[in-house]
Design brief:
By secondary structure, the protein is of the alpha/beta class. Helices cover 33% and strands 29% of the residues. 32% of the residues are buried.
Length: 381
């Protein structure tokens, strides 16, 4: 009996453009050209958008969307269908959202592609997220944090207990920060378990668990079971509800190092968010060791110095750096959370020299790493 190759996840071999035959009818060649351009141009996401009479393609570079090309409707539909086949999705379903992924390889580099498809008024819209599997290169020292905060953060991580909370909007680099911490902590003497939705990058020596909410396998359910797996370090992709927050905080109180994220605008707001969840202030004050909030700002191109030379960069910028603020908990901060107000905490942090997102961002402006406009756009709350 023959194998059904439809359900086999093949690796898409990506070739350089000069090696293509330039056959306009070959949809794979066109997809290859699109992906090769994206890899060369540091594209993080490819947007394929069905319009009334054409299909528009845009790419996201350093957080900014840029027009790439417009295709005729027929070619665009064929491209979307091919992506569905490669991602093992239902090519006949055009009424409901679908999510999938496929693997690619360029030279000796393995790359994952996450595919999200939704129906729109003129047809389907696809977003292709490019996930390069070079996470071993991620390090805390390369994130862009201030030297003072990196030093204190490493001291907190080396304690091997407590909860570290990383905050910021979608696309602010929280996942990269979490994975950099896992790389820093990775040790054969530690049992490190991650709970993610979705798993974006794979670690060879880490136990990773994928949430599947459709069968009831959510963060809280998995986290309860993980605590019986003798973990040393637990990474929880995101706190979305009171139950997950309570379990994570209690895990930190019982001698585990817990690393997780929360969607808030700054680090102080995270405390209010947990209180609004209904978490006891005592648990918050005693279990958390640090709260970090971050944004990503574009870096000035080192070659043209921000002169917008398109051959070397994108609009004068190349790459992005994190701008962070971190509250490291001490006895006084814990006491303020228990007995005083957020306003009192803000005044205390100002007194001890706590640097906000804006202040750390402006230090990058002074160092000619980015511009004032860029910092204000990303860090002004």
């Amino acid at each position: 009996m023959e194998d059904n190759i439809y359900f086999k996840r093949h690796t898409f071999e990506i070739r350089e453009v000069k090696d293509l035959k330039y056959c306009k009818e070959d949809i794979l060649e066109y997809l290859n050209e699109l992906i090769f351009f994206s890899l060369e141009s540091r594209v993080s996401d490819i947007h394929i958008e069905s319009k009334e009479s054409e299909v528009k393609i845009r790419v996201r570079i350093d957080g900014q969307l840029k027009d790439y090309k417009e295709l005729n409707k027929n070619l665009g539909i064929r491209l979307i269908t091919k992506l569905k086949l490669m991602s093992e999705l239902d090519i006949g379903e055009k009424r409901l959202p679908q999510d999938g992924r496929f693997k690619g390889q360029f030279q000796d580099k393995k790359i994952d592609f996450r595919v999200s498809i939704i129906p729109t008024i003129f047809g389907e819209r696809v977003v292709l997220r490019i996930l390069k599997n070079d996470i071993s290169k991620l390090s805390l020292d390369g994130l862009g944090f201030s030297l003072e905060n990196i030093k204190k953060l490493k001291e907190v991580l080396n304690k091997k207990s407590g909860l570290l909370l990383f905050c910021g909007p979608t696309g602010s680099g929280k996942t990269t920060t979490l994975y950099s911490i896992v790389n820093y902590l990775e040790n054969e003497n530690l049992n490190i378990i991650t709970i993610e939705d979705p798993i974006e990058y794979q670690f060879s020596n880490i136990n990773q668990i994928q949430c599947k909410t459709e069968i009831g396998l959510d963060f809280a359910t998995i986290l309860r079971s993980v605590l019986r797996q003798d973990p040393d370090v637990i990474l929880v992709g995101e706190i979305r509800d009171k139950e997950t927050a309570e379990i994570a905080l209690m895990a930190a109180l019982t001698g585990h190092l817990v690393i997780t994220t929360l969607h808030t605008i700054d680090s102080i707001s995270a405390i209010d968010r947990l209180i609004n969840f209904g978490i006891d202030k005592f648990v918050i004050a005693t279990s958390i060791t640090a709260i970090e909030s971050q944004r990503l700002v574009r870096k000035l191109c080192l070659i043209c110095g921000g002169q917008k030379e398109q051959k070397c960069c994108f609009g004068g910028f190349k790459g992005r750096d994190a701008v962070e603020e971190i509250i490291f908990f001490n006895k006084e901060i814990r006491n303020i959370i228990l007995h005083k107000t957020t306003k009192d905490l803000e005044e205390y942090l100002k007194k001890i020299g706590f640097k906000t997102l804006l202040e750390n961002g402006f230090s990058k402006v002074e160092s000619r790493l980015t511009t004032k406009v860029e910092v204000l756009r990303e860090c002004l709350i």
